[in-house]
Amino acid sequence: MVSLLRNQKVRNALLQVLYVGSLAALVLAGIVIARRNLAEQGITSGFDFLYKSTGWDVNFSLLPATANDPYWWFFLIGIINTLFLGSVGLVLATLVGTIVGLARTSSNELAQLLGRTYVDIFRNIPLILQVFFWYAIITHLPTPRAAHEALGMFLTSRGLYVPFPNVGGIAFAAAILAVIAAIALPIWIGRTSRLSQPFGERLGIQLAAAATALTTAAVILALGRLPDLPLLDFPALQGLNLKGGLRIPPEFSALAIAIAIYGGSYIAEIVRGGFKAVGKGQMEAALSLGLSPWRVFTLVRLPLALRAMLPILANQYVWLMKATTMGIAVGFTDFFMIVALTINHSGQTLEAIGILMAGFLAINLSLAAVFNRINKAIALKGNQLRG
Amino acid sequence: MTANSTKPHRPAVRLENLDKYYGTFHALRKVNLSVERGERIVVCGPSGSGKSTMIRCINRLEQHNGGKITVLGTELNDDVANIEGIRREVGMVFQHFNLFPHMTVMENCMIAPMIVRKRPRAEAEATARQYLQKVRIPEQAMKFPGQLSGGQQQRVAIARALCMRPQVMLFDEPTSALDPEMISEVLDVMVTLASEGMTMICVTHEMGFARRVADRVIFMDGGEIVEEAPPEEFFTASRNERTRQFLSQVLGH
Amino acid sequence: MEMVVVAPPAPGRLENLKRRFFATPLQALLSLISLAIMAFIVWKLLDWAVFSAVFTTSGGPEACQAAAGACWSVIAARWRIILFGLYPFEEQWRSALACVAVVVMTALSCIPAFWTGRRIALVWGAGTTLYYLLMKGGVLGLLYVGEEAWGGLALTLFIFITTCLIGFPLAICLALLRRSELPWISRTTGIVIDGVRSLPLISILFTFAIVLPFALPQWLVGDKLYRVIFGSALFFSAYQAEIVRGGMQGVPAGQEEAAMALGMSYWQRIGRILLPQAMRNALPATINQFVISFKETSLVVIVGFFEILASGNAAYGTGEWRFAYVEVYAFIAFIYFVFVFSLSRYGAFLERRMAVGER
Ligand SMILES: Nc1ncnc2c1ncn2[C@@H]1O[C@H](COP(=O)(O)OP(=O)(O)OP(=O)(O)O)[C@@H](O)[C@H]1O
Ligand SMILES: [Mg+2]
């Protein structure tokens, strides 16, 4: 027996069985105990509750929602809210980060100082504090009656009111897709056609693509507009409140601003790192070929820096998506807050936690998949390069 | 070490029909070798022929897949106590020194006697000084490995192995990572060690060293021991075609 | 012979300035824009925070609200609740002393002389014990104060140090299991680590605070504070484990082989050879992780703890200081900034120093 225990193979097998077994036992025991405790409170486990109506409402939704809708619909709304806030935050943070990062890499010392101060300040203050701060600022804005107005927009303590087209939901979504295509297509064409193609020809194709997409958007909007209403719906004061237009609630704005500013400070560092990773030799080579500084930047420095940034940027985007869970601090109904509310109201604890994990796993994995594709597509071919 | 000390004949290291696979690659094919106590063996052969693999099996840095390894009378098998016992009695010197960079030379030499052999600090220190003296660098004791030259590092590595007072020493190309002018200072130490009767198995391409100290030279190729002979015979009257080809390459340049 | 030394004419100060900031029209434009932005922000900020600000409590909230600038009187009136929460008023010196103990402990761990496993464990053990005794009392004639009364900065620091204290050893265990040669152990650990890393911290804190009591036997449920600390430590360790593993991958395989050849056992190899070198490799990333973790302790406000953010909300949220939220948040932001900025500067310094040391 003792000699058996001293045997390396026996030991290894035993250790593995013990480790995996005890972990599995721990999880199982937790589930069994939880089911018993929940059953005592009259909660039957299972996913049937997904089809019951919730009895409570959400304060922000891109899809129609009422208290009569079932739980699964609310989970969907939550995921879409998370993705929506995440993408808005992601775009804004990238914008901020690019500007600050470029300032930090510029040859101008004053611009460098400005960028550095920005990063040093906003990176070192917790995101949630920044969310609280912006939320307090927005909710302390004047009431609708005393609101600031500019270009038909109202900035009030109840949120930002902007003009919105009187267009059916689906048509509006389609028009947005067309506008995105108008931006994406020329970039894609620029990427796929090589330099060796004549420049004028490429520009023509790009312009044509953008114009087509934009026209499509306009046509969709014109066809989808609601009859008997003006094309644009302007918010206007009625009694104590503003009516019409689109209201962007303070919860959403506070989160989006905070994520843009905080995330921007991280992305700025990534941008700077990417530019730093481009070898001096490459740039000197390009300059010595007689390329103008601008073309050196767009043809050599930027493409190489982008390749260096992308993997780190991918991690940062995943982090940004997870940061939307701060929504619960100010009452924005993101995916996590829906899960928390579900647990509160229905008591379906285990199922809700399971859905939460599955949801975030799915978000993480799909983001990772997208970035892997991009990474592979733009990776430098071959492995024979030096320095 | 164990019961069969009644047997009159007990070689220090004995490999019988040793087989080793890396995945599907057959790295050692039925290798047989017996090394007597006090014997000095030099192993040579072309790159990838399995020299390192063979001596790394002796102290189980690699696990063999077939055959039998007996070291100092103890069979090397899955028994953990046997493995640790054998490693205590077998010292090894590596091509790339593998000194512990976060410890001083002195600490490198003291750590194993103290924590493996459980020797008191004072004794471990005295042993370390003695062996550093022997490899001729007592004055470097308080330096860190990163502050020494390659040759000095390799001599420290030898001293570190000797501090465990091993009965068998394994050398895996101890000089091939060194600049030419440092090779001789390491070889000198090894020659001294040989003259004191240490059991040694050296993988090396230093043919001068082989001629001077080896009792037997072993030539390996393709995972097999192709030839085994005393040095005079090996260098002058080799029967094997592959050996002669190898020798002409090593000695020719 | 007469030596003729021709020195180039020393550039005047104006010349120098011109070369640095106005070399080309584009540079000049950039400089001017940056300068304008800076001047605007600095002026606005100074005016708000200093020139037009009210510093004394004498006028009361009303006078303060009327002022054009910042109302720092709210800090003067409410700093105790921000720093110490609802800790009994006469005992707050203990809270302050406990915070000092944590700061000293952190400062000591930044000194290389303390970077051995035993010494660092000693410093942290002593610091945490001291903190705990001071805060909790009940011994040495100190009044007993339960955890539910802890709050403010003191609670934030407590959550941070206990997270590290539990999370760090856990991270090393996870990293060792992750790199185990036994496939089932490394694979299972990998799933656990990746699973935790794919979840947002808030969801983990929420699970540990609110959901876990259902899944634990009664005797194991314990205090909510310690459950949340454990959740936060688990999250920390999942990230730190990958950092430690990265550090281990930086240690050449020959190191372990040499240790094996000397007859060292698994734990001797790990403790004496592998970990000391791996931790050194992982040091900059580790400090970065500490920085992130310190910022993230602020999230416990969501599961209902009275740490510095919640006490800040309370400091302006009730009664007459309602208008002074910007000042309160600025104060808390400043406290976080001091801790986080100095720690991350230290990390950057170490990274530079190590990069030089390698050459
Ligand atoms: N860990 C490993 N995994 C797979 N194959 C290996 C491994 N180690 C060695 N081999 C293969 O086993 C064969 C023998 O290797 P070994 O290192 O023993 O050769 P060697 O005689 O020491 O050569 P050299 O003179 O170059 O050191 C080689 O073909 C090598 O590619
Ligand atoms: Mg070899």
TrEMBL record, chain A:
Keywords (A to Z) from UniProt: Amino-acid transport, Cell membrane, Membrane, Transmembrane, Transmembrane helix, Transport
Highest taxon, organism lineage: Bacteria
Membrane topology: Multi-pass membrane protein
Source species taxonomy: Bacteria, Pseudomonadati, Pseudomonadota, Alphaproteobacteria, Hyphomicrobiales
Name recorded for this polypeptide: ABC transporter permease
Listed InterPro entries: AA_ABC_transptr_permease_3TM, ArtM/GltK/GlnP/TcyL/YhdX-like, MetI-like, MetI-like_sf
Subcellular localization(s) per the UniProt record: Cell inner membrane; Cell membrane
Gene3D superfamilies, sorted: MetI-like
GO cellular component, one term: ATP-binding cassette (ABC) transporter complex
Keyword check for Transmembrane: yes
Span of domain ABC transmembrane type-1: 79-371
A GO biological process held by the record: amino acid transport
Biological source species: Mesorhizobium atlanticum
From TrEMBL, chain B:
CDD domains associated with the record: ABC_HisP_GlnQ
Keywords, sorted A to Z: ATP-binding, Nucleotide-binding, Transport
Family annotation (SMART domains): AAA
Pfam (any one): ABC_tran
Domain of life from the UniProt record: Bacteria
One MF annotation (Gene Ontology) recorded for this entry: ABC-type amino acid transporter activity
PROSITE patterns attached to this UniProt entry: ABC_TRANSPORTER_1, ABC_TRANSPORTER_2
Domain ABC transporter: 13-247
InterPro entries listed in its UniProt record: AAA+_ATPase, ABC_ATPase_HisP-typ, ABC_transporter-like_ATP-bd, ABC_transporter-like_CS, MetN_ABC_transporter-like, P-loop_NTPase
Family per similarity comment: Belongs to the ABC transporter superfamily.
Protein name (database record): Glutamine ABC transporter ATP-binding protein
Lineage: Bacteria, Pseudomonadati, Pseudomonadota, Alphaproteobacteria, Hyphomicrobiales
TrEMBL record, chain C:
Places the protein is found: Cell inner membrane; Cell membrane
One Gene Ontology molecular-function label: transmembrane transporter activity
Presence of the UniProt keyword Kinase in the record: no
Domain ABC transmembrane type-1: 153-344
InterPro entries: AA_ABC_transptr_permease_3TM (IPR010065), ArtM/GltK/GlnP/TcyL/YhdX-like (IPR043429), MetI-like (IPR000515), MetI-like_sf (IPR035906)
PROSITE patterns according to UniProt: ABC_TM1
Record's bilayer topology term: Multi-pass membrane protein
A GO biological process held by the record: amino acid transport
Record's keyword terms, sorted: Cell membrane, Membrane, Transmembrane, Transmembrane helix, Transport
Keyword Calcium: no
Stretches that traverse the bilayer: 21-43, 93-115, 122-144, 150-177, 198-219, 323-344
One cellular-component annotation, GO: ATP-binding cassette (ABC) transporter complex
Record-linked SUPFAM superfamilies: MetI-like
Short name of any one Pfam family annotated for the protein: BPD_transp_1
PANTHER family in the cross-refs: INNER MEMBRANE AMINO-ACID ABC TRANSPORTER PERMEASE PROTEIN YHDY (PTHR30614:SF41), MEMBRANE COMPONENT OF AMINO ACID ABC TRANSPORTER (PTHR30614)
Family of this protein: Belongs to the binding-protein-dependent transport system permease family. HisMQ subfamily.
This protein's name: Amino acid ABC transporter permease
Annotated source species: Mesorhizobium atlanticum
